Amino acid sequence: MHWQLPTGSQPAYLRLINFIRHSLEIGALLPGQQLPPERQLAATLAVSRSTVRRTFDELVSQGILVRKVGSGTWVNTEKWGVLPNSINWQSYLTADRLADPTQYMAQLQVLLDQKKGLNLAQATLPAALLAKSPLPAMTWQTVLTQEAHLAISGAPKLKKQLQLFLGQHLRQNVVTSQILITSGAQQAFFLITQGLLAAGDAIAVEQPSYFYQLGLFQAAGIRIFGVPLRSDGSLDLAVLRQLYYQHHVRFIFVNPTGQNPTGCTMPLSARQALIQLCAELKLPIVEDDPLALLQRAANVLVPPLKALDPENVLYVGTLSTLTGPNTRIGWLVAPSQIVQRLADIRQQLDSGLSIFPQLVATGLLADPDLTVYLQQLQQQLKQKKEQLQRLLLPLQQQHKISFQLPQIGYNLWLKLHIGRQLTPSDYTVFLKNGLLVLPGFLFGLQENTIRVSFAQLTPEQAVVLVQRLTKCLTLLADD
């Protein structure tokens, strides 16, 4: 819930009372929900703590709120008049379901919606680069003809194009029955949770990892355990072995090339060691490879995990990194029986695929200019990365930050050398100074780190970024 004190001529405590009552009436606050601590809420609303205390006292006297010794202030679950005969919706919102966004994410989303500040949070290409990608011409006759031949596992022509690309990229023969077309990588992960996992099952992920941000695992009741990721991109396999036996881990989900958020790429020796351990444990791997199409242009020659172990790796790819997040096309490469089962589940859920993005993807993969476009795109990303490196060098030399340049992708993982452990609320200093970044705690890592996505930065904005970052570091150090 986003807390904001309404404007008006009434005293602040009355405006806050009205805001809370209205939030209850519209369902933004629910019976049984805990309110923020008085000190925290006062800081959020820029009012005195006595104002918040007076508000709470008044609502407690009305029976709307209750105080519990040692655990704070809560919305009363009993019948207190504001929502007569209301259902206790809080009982439906268990901890294993999709949680409310953190206060940081709520504030970030407001700024993104208002287009305020430098957008360093969204790892997407800017419209200027996307506009140069080759897109096919199509007629209604083409659409209707393709739709008539659409299988539940995806358009046959798109699967044929992917078969050609994946055969080279995965260094193996891939048959079309092993390819499931999805509406982006997240649908592939969702189908895996629905078809191959059950509530209460455990999975392992890299730590840090963007998998911590995907609410679909929590929504499915899947338990997530982190395996520490080293600076060279390798995993702590001793921890993985321990987690496997301690929690009966069913899958490990990894993003070994241009890892999100760190940008590192797992070396070949580490990939082979991971494959060997997982084969020993009979632990299947889900490999997320969103930058596959860029790897040749970026001169990343290390083979995917799927190429090293075709039988025990489920491989997920996407075109969203090239066509933007709104053209959701991805794919899952798996044994044919797995593809058929997950396609059947999707059909039962009535979440089939639109033919339009599949036609776009088919045309894009078949375009003879695609290689040229990818090379140009990689060159532009390289220029942005190198400019940012030059601008950040003084801060690095002053030991205020440290980072490693990603070989591929457009995420920079900055370690902030602050003499104390930052709390989630500390990171709001970046938002207040117009830097829309993602802190490490959102990726399951309680260290002083932020992810900066530089794909959308212009040269002028990069200069502003470093100026604002310098200011933020000073404020955090002085706090």
From TrEMBL:
The keyword rRNA-binding does not apply. SUPFAM superfamilies: PLP-dependent transferases, Winged helix' DNA-binding domain. The keyword Translocase does not apply. Transmembrane segments: none annotated. SMART domains: HTH_GNTR. PROSITE patterns: HTH_GNTR (PS50949). InterPro entries: Aminotransferase_I/II_large, HTH_trans_reg/aminotransferase, PyrdxlP-dep_Trfase, PyrdxlP-dep_Trfase_major, PyrdxlP-dep_Trfase_small, Tscrpt_reg_HTH_GntR, WH-like_DNA-bd_sf, WH_DNA-bd_sf. Pfam families: Aminotran_1_2 (PF00155), GntR (PF00392). In the C-terminal section; belongs to the class-I pyridoxal-phosphate-dependent aminotransferase family. This is GntR family transcriptional regulator. It comes from Loigolactobacillus backii.
